[in-house]
Design a protein that fits this description.
The chain has about 325 residues and is an alpha/beta fold. The chain has one domain: Rossmann fold. Helix content is about 40%, strand content about 15%. It has eleven helices and nine strands. The strands form two sheets. A seven-stranded mixed beta sheet has the order 1-3-2-4-5-8-9, sandwiched between helices. A two-stranded antiparallel sheet has the order 6-7. Helix 5 links the parallel strand 4 and strand 5. Helix 4 crosses helix 5 and helix 5 packs parallel to helix 9. The longest helix is centred in the first third of the chain and has 38 residues.
């Protein structure tokens, strides 16, 4: 081969390989997208705002007569941040508690929107603005309880650390932490989740499979409750390796830069002993970090529950923690 040809191929080969790599990644998204489309055909999304219309829109149950608010933050990429708990939230409102559930980040989104380029800072800014705007309208003495499920612990702790109007109490349910132990989709996906730092450059998606020992993809131990939740059709059928990696980084940021600034609160931490997303030591470390910051922490580990503690067998105890933070007894009808 002539020197000119050798030089040409030497120069062009990296570009060709880069183009092939991008084509492979694009093909993966297209293939998974077509498969997801069959699932999402059974859902309805707003044509402009793209909210999932069955429980995925922001929830604002507010009366000026009430003197307490539950500011609730669900987890990462969930389709129905308020919808999964809508009946309970309505009952809570009827007891005299306002309920605010903003939709943030990749929540309540169809495939293309929830697999866009995402940054944690977007979530922290949006949640902080919603919280501050709402808190600014409240009368003196109005209590705000910030409650978070899973990934919601990150924006919740950011609100507690940095908002101008401090919440009056904090509740963390299955809080996100740096000890991710992704057992929810079986041993292969668990192994893959630990390789996300490099694997995200080669494999973009995996397909959600029924969780070991669970009736569906939901990490809910109680079979009847699991199937009832699955029947809503809210689960995202795909997992994204890129977001697995970014979730690790987000947890590290929270533990290094946000939790140390959370101080002087009454806080409740509730987790399921049979959680398939995080190691139990991660929840212990989360509670310990709060205590180290001078917070008064009540910790409750639910023996019969997985990750979704408000929907599982011990849900009444998880809701009791919320009522304890609110400062009211749990009504008999709740």
């Amino acid at each position: 081969m002539k020197p000119v040809a050798i030089a040409f191929f030497t120069i062009m080969s990296p570009f060709a390989l880069y183009g092939l790599w991008k084509a492979v990644l694009g093909a993966q998204k297209a293939i998974v997208g077509r498969r997801v489309a069959a699932v999402e055909a059974r859902r309805t999304y707003d044509p402009v705002l793209r909210y999932h219309r069955d429980g995925g829109e922001p929830l604002f149950l507010v009366s000026p007569k009430h003197d307490t608010t539950l500011f609730f933050l669900e987890g990462f990429r969930t389709q129905s941040p308020a919808g999964m708990y809508r009946e309970r939230f309505q009952k809570l409102f009827e007891t005299g508690v306002n309920v605010i559930v903003p939709v943030y980040g990749l929540q309540s989104s169809p495939f293309d929107l929830r697999n866009r380029d995402w940054r944690l800072e977007e979530d922290l800014r949006l949640v902080g603005q919603v919280y501050d705007a709402y808190a600014a309208t409240l009368a003196p003495g109005h209590r705000i309880i910030v409650c978070a499920q899973s990934f919601g612990a990150i924006p919740a702790s950011s609100v507690a650390a940095f908002s101008s109007r401090r919440p009056d109490a904090l509740v963390f349910l299955s809080p996100h932490n740096a000890e991710l132990d992704f057992r929810v989709s079986g041993p292969m996906i668990r192994w893959l989740s630990r390789q996300s730092a490099w694997l995200r450059h080669l494999v973009r998606f995996s397909w959600a499979a029924p969780a070991p020992g669970r009736a569906s993809v939901w990490d809910i131990v109680d079979t009847d409750r699991n199937l009832a939740t699955a029947a809503r059709g809210d689960a995202n059928p795909e997992d994204a390796t890129e977001y697995g990696y970014r979730n690790e980084l987000a947890a590290r940021l929270m533990e290094a830069s946000i939790l140390p600034a959370v101080s002087g609160y009454d806080a409740w931490v509730v987790c399921g002993e049979r959680d398939l997303y995080f190691a139990q030591s991660g929840f212990d470390r989360f509670a310990s970090a709060l205590r180290s910051g001078g917070n008064r922490v009540v910790f409750d580990r639910l023996a019969g529950s997985g990750h979704m503690v408000l929907l599982d067998a011990d849900a009444d105890r998880a809701w009791a923690a919320i009522f304890a933070a609110i400062g009211k007894p749990v009504p008999d009808s709740f």
